[in-house]
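Thread: quick sanity check before group meeting

JM: Hey all, I'm pulling together slides for Thursday and realized we never actually wrote out the predicted structure for the chain we discussed last week. Dropping the sequence here so it's in one place. If anyone has concerns about the input, flag it before I start.
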Amino acid sequence: LRDYPTLSHVIGFVKAHRPDLAGGTVRIAEAAPTVVRPSASAPTLQAASLEAADLMPRRVAVPTLRPASRFCKPTGVSLNKKDRVLIMPDASGVAEVLANALAERGVIALTADPNVDAETFSAQLTEALSEGAIQGVYWLPALEVEPEIESLDLNQWHELLRVRVKNLYTAMRTLYQTITTPENFLVVGTRLGGMHGYGVEGASAPLGGAVTGFAKAYKRERLETLVKAVDFAPDASAETVAAGLLEETLSDPGVVEIGYGQGGRYGVTLIETPAVDGSEGLPLNEETVFLVTGAAGGITSAIVTDLAAASGGIFFLTDLVNLPEPDDESIHLFRQDREALTKRLIDQARAKGERPTPAQIDKAFFAIEREESALRAVEAVEAAGGTAFYRSANLLDPDALNGVVDEIRERFGRIDVLIHAGGMEISRTLPDKDPKQFDLVFDIKADGFFSLLKAAAGMPIRATVVFSSVAGRFGNSGQTDYSAANDLLCKISSSLRRWRPHTRGIALDWTAWGGIGMATRGSIPKIMEMAGIDMLPPESGIPTVRRELVSSAFRGEIVVGGRLGILVKEFEEESGGVDGAALEACAREHHLGLVGAVKGCKLYGGLAVETTLDPKTQAFLHDHAMEGTPLLPGVMATEAFAQMAKLTAPEYTITGVEKVKLMQPFKFYRGEPATLYLRAVTVPSADGNLICRCELRSSRPPSKPGLPAQEKLHFTAEVHLSRGEVTQPMMEIDLPDMSALTIGAEKVYTVYFHGPAYKVLERVGVGADYAVGLMAQGLPPDAPDPVWLMFPRLIELAFQTAGIWEIKTNSTLALPASFESVSTYGGVPNGSQLYALVEAVDGGQSFNALVTDERGKVYVRLDGYRTSALPDKVTL
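JM (edit): ok, ran it. Output follows.
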């Protein structure tokens, strides 16, 4: 049994995508790699550094909004008259509606029988093939919402998975030489909630995760073929689902996972987020009760050591191997002299009259290695002052697992942390993966987790941690079974929000581990380097489990690794599957003048736009020049972000721009045109709305030939969007007399560098902790055809008013640095007299501001505005 992905999990994927690396023969260890340890029999106990875990990016799997299908490229599948497709039906009526829709196109639908055994099913498919080609497959059983997991017995569990994923294995193995071209397809349907279980509510029918995992791995084996896993909400009608399945068959070749939720199309991407988020984590101490499967794996043993050193807790450790005696001679030799152990194993085999082969000796050595790992985990717990209970148990034996859980129930009445690390993998493509092998790899992970949760029914579990793999997140050639099982574990973990709301479900998608055992030998590190994939250093990987438990109340799925290389290579590299021209037309329709050329909308990177601006034609540039060099105003970067967000979700209303950081000026050197490189990734927020995460970069030619381009990150922000309308606030205001606004524009713009279009202040008055700015009227246009979403010159009014307070109070001239949020309201305030009412917070550490008219109608609210002071002193 293997408890974590090693390089053998990734190597097939690498070769499938980089055939130039496949020429040599690379031996992949079947055994789990061992941790290099001191020679002493007892481990040296010291909890690993959580800071070391943070050296690796913490990537969280989240849903991301995709453009509507009308903005996407065609897939290459046509569904022509007399094409033949296979439908494996559901029980919710989708298959019938889909078959009728296909019939209207002249497509012949062959409906399969989910109730026949695998051998009969395969024979039926072979017969169907003899009558003509099958262009594609619609796989619908996972559209049925299964009963709650705890209500199932093992036979019911097996039957549900047989219909959903094991029949799928049979179908695609039988059709393997048929579903091969861009005209062919596999489209599977699920009801995980519309966002593949990554929404705030968690997965609604988690067994669909097995189908999705299979589909992702199948795509890696058939890169030229359209493969999609299309997810829907539990209450989506049969007509809606059938229409979505057809739509996804015909458009958007850029994604495999796609879902229909909150009125949009959602893929699954990765967002880097810190582990600490302000919520309370799980304290680990001597009373913490752990249950760990796969405890004899080298990495799992090391993780147990770390948890024991940090907690001194109570550990129930399980694995298939028996726990050896501490004075066992083989264990002693393994720890002290491995060459002597190998010689001893050879001598023992010869004493039995055998002629041992290297493979036989490796197998015997591996068995001792796992026994030693199990013993070391027990020793680590005891050395930390904790209590260890080791129980030999097969993850395929529900009675054995029930016994372990019953013992915990009787002794402690709870499980604080359940770590499901047990599993195995055997990498073979579908034609070479026989049914017994598929069942073994899949069932060990899937049945093991099911049996543990079933046995623990009614007992508190504070957190579960499942060891998944990049094979589960991205799919991997040769690992349809392993990917299916891992993604199933991820979706069950997600579903805990629904039926075990007090249990945190955490899934860790491990990349390949490096620096230990076989992972460091031969050409493997070189192959991984050429594929752009970093191997995971043990010093970073080992404390990751503890970090996720103690740092916050996070529940979800995390990819653990460094560079992911070809794992995150886009399936449609040019544009990510979208039609840039169609999106540009949409931008023009909505008057989004800062959206230039749409370069794509990629799964890992989001919407990419390049907008070239010329200071000679844009007043907001040539009237915003410092020492002769035009600078992009921070308010126009904010406007660009709002326009990007509007393009991603045209039906939504912008409610505010938050967490705005103005890191460094964007300069138009020598007054020449320059290009803004804009990116936006839109994700759902916890309240059911949207957050569009934006960044603006520049790119200049390299300083010397052969060097990379000089890229800089200038601005970042989050744009918040809602389907509802925003109500314009009204407030009671007591405006000062004009006589109190003592600083006129003629003085202001002897200090400020702004030109006519940005001379927004007519007069300013400053108090101890406030300032009031009166907006100038009759300003020239700030662009040839200005249509703005965020009233940038009104925000600039607040900025400049705050700046005058700083000059009068501190004699400092400052540039915008950041602000917490800005919201705009109402229509364009033509003809109204406008005021910026600015509050200096904590002596000017930050500023809050409102822009209103004389009646108290609010047009702008700005909070948490901060500046960066220039070194020279100035006065007014």
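AS: nice. The chain has a mean pLDDT of 92. The longest helix spans residues 358-383.
JM: adding both to the slides.
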